[in-house]
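Researcher: For the record, we're logging two predictions in this thread. I'll number them. Prediction 1 follows.
Model: Prediction 1, sequence and structure:
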Amino acid sequence: MTVWQIAAGSDQRDYVDDFLRYGLAFVGGQRKIDTLALVRPGDLLVLKRGLSQVVAVGRVIDRGTGHYGVGDKHWLRDFDGWDLQAYVHVDWRLPPSELPPDGLLRGTIARIKQDVLREAAIGAFSQGTPTSSPLVEPGSTNPIDDEQMLGFLVTKGLSPRLAEELTAAFARIRRLARYYRVECDRKDVREHETRTFLVAPLLLALGWAEQSMKIELSVPKGRIDLACFRRPYRRDATGQANDSDCELIIETKGLAQGLGLAPEQARSYAAHYPSTRAVVVTNGYCYKVFDKVDGAFSESPSAYMNLLDPRDRYPRDPIRTAGCLAVLEQLLPS
């Protein structure tokens, strides 16, 4: 029996809950995919957080369609913009006590060769508590093309002239986003670049005026990456700004960061602007919108859009969460 260690994302992209609730382990990137392909039924996986915590231990199993797959689950192909296409089925168990992290290695997936950790993992699996039966995986979603998006926006008030400009903006944003993803190290594409070259051009093409957009707007607990106002932002003779005109608060992230932790940050900023109708988190091509309902922003996204692969629903949660059309409607100036 081979014992492996596997990480579920990173501190900015924590997929532990998804591993456990769906009875899976999944990875992206060709080297990691090639390594996961070496895992066999009966092997054990040690699920780690960083180098300091073992969360669960699982045995790789065949659920009737094989133990391993790659590329056939669309909801893994767009995991908030990450292509995590390779997976194995796993019977996860929670260890009866905390396992010593000694022997864990950096990286996403690797064989465990340290005997102490191997034996601890084997014992933890045999004595561990099984997690609940895997949830039904998210269902299919449908692609939405540019003509559908533009036609929808025109019905919502976008002028035909801006629709033509938006078509060109979509093309430019996609071209640059693909360049960043393919030609650059994600860590080198920081939030300042995504905000400047991907997010702001989309907002301008949707009809926001430059004088109604504030970048790095100071608030008591930090700075809002980008705020959109229904009127040009200005201060009166007493120094009071037109804060009541704020409509959107947008938190931007770099390509190496996830979108999971950003909503809480954006919600805290929105407390200073009660007129805000939605908070948005984005890495420049993936957008999550959190609507205000009964005076509070939703905990789960109300809509999701990946401009590189626009869909009618959110691939990770198509039952509860709308897709690209709802995102674009929220991004329109009122």
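Researcher: Logged. Prediction 2.
Model: Prediction 2, sequence and structure:
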Amino acid sequence: MLYRPAPYSHKGQNGILCVVGGSEKYHGAPLLAIKAASRFVDLVYFHSPAKLDEKILLKLKSKSNCFIAVPKRDLFKTIEKSDCMLVGNGLEVNSENKRLVNTLLKRFAKTKKMVLDAGALRMADKKLFSKNVLVTPHSLEFEVLFGANASPEEAKRQAHKWNCVILLKQRFCFVTEGKNVWKNANGNEGMTKGGTGDVLAGLCAAFACKNDLLSSAQAAAFVNGFTGDVLYAIQGSRFDADDLAESVAFAFNQALEEKR
């Protein structure tokens, strides 16, 4: 179902992603998302609203060269040329960032595909959601965002009510667009480690650059869990989010081979 790059395509034709997130405390979260996403798109732009922006970027740049840093003055212009944006990984919950998250929703939710994860889920105004918005909460984030107990059926109700796509992360992942619910049943106990959700969000956003949000969420949940199972077969539950992010492309190709 997923888009595949044409043999003679050029840089930028196979997906441009803009990531907004990071803080002084959680600068690693967006890096995990970026690491996973960069395997599947041509360009990844990254903006951090953190006050120590330059220090954070230096730390990130020391670990990865697969993104282009974007200053605040260029953020909207960068989003305009992007296919999708991922907002929230490592984002600190405060009034300034709440204003940023909802400004992005107001300005772009009707025209750009958006994936909201982590901190953004605690600050977003769901009245601004649209069919272009995918949210990826775990159970507690779901309850904070929607004011209801997290369950697959409740996720379907909330997706229908707010006209969005929801990927609910529980023991299994559930994806709904408000009419149907799809269950993804792969994955294992090694994926309880911090950061695996950031990898999943990165995959969602990367796939969404060239695919619809529903298919992207379904594929991302499968690929994330399948990658975890590939790692589990090699080293048991003793893998972490870095291992997961670095293995998604290998596992993706292995999954394609098995499907054939």
